[in-house]
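User: What would this chain look like folded?
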Amino acid sequence: MNLAMDDPLLWLSEHDPYTLRDVCDGGVCVFGQTGSGKTSGSGRALAKSLLSRGAGFLVCCAKGDEADLWEKLAAETGRSDALLRFTLDGQTRFNFVAWAADHYRRRGVRPTQNLVELITTLAKAVRRNSSDTGGGDEGPFWDKAFSRALSKAIDLVEISTGSVTLGAISEVVNSAPLESSQLLDEDWKAASLCSRLVEESHARLDTLSEDDRNDFDKAARYFYSEWARLAEKTRSIILSIFNEVMDLFLSGPLRRPFCTDTNFVPELVHHGAIVLLDMPVLQL
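Assistant: Here's the prediction, encoded as structure tokens.
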């Protein structure tokens, strides 16, 4: 971007420049009545100033016609080639869990805790208005139980396969033993991803680092001992919470753009891409 932090974007008066530093430090909020020109006036002026200087954007489109407006602004400023329209048709895809896992792994950090925080943030959004999965004083208990199951599934998948996806996390939890007797059932072992990953990782323990062995051991003990011995009602509530979150992304319109492969990464914005997240809430 051909713009320094203190270069003026707009002049609010003859002596009052509005700079990129102002945008980044305080953000921008435009107030006005319906039809007063918030978008066509102040918003348009600031957007065109940034676009004309090569700025990258992530535009979260709240209205159905907002992406069309940004395409028009990009054309007016010669930035059409930088546009990337992210829609529910799946042409642009971003597997955010796999990307986040790889992002931390490349920095030598186990991704588990960061992925738990990412996915539990989604869980809170999904369950915000739910009243049948443990509210009131028991809410924190279910939150912790959900996070514990999630973290152990992430550890098992990541250590066993070297990558993480929501689909694999979901299948591990849903294929975990419901009772201790299943651990001796060869048919269950053959059908269960949880069992398969435990057995495969156990067979190569000597190739794992000390930290991986420790985390794998805790994950295997959780699913083979703690999970299998949970009271049926307790486990069913945890599974209900878990699957409610997973189903939001693993089925319906969000599955293809967010849970398949990846042909877009957020870092493109740092290089001037204008990403239009064209998924208005009322259309989801």
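The first helix runs from residue 20 to 26. If you want, I can go into more detail on any region.
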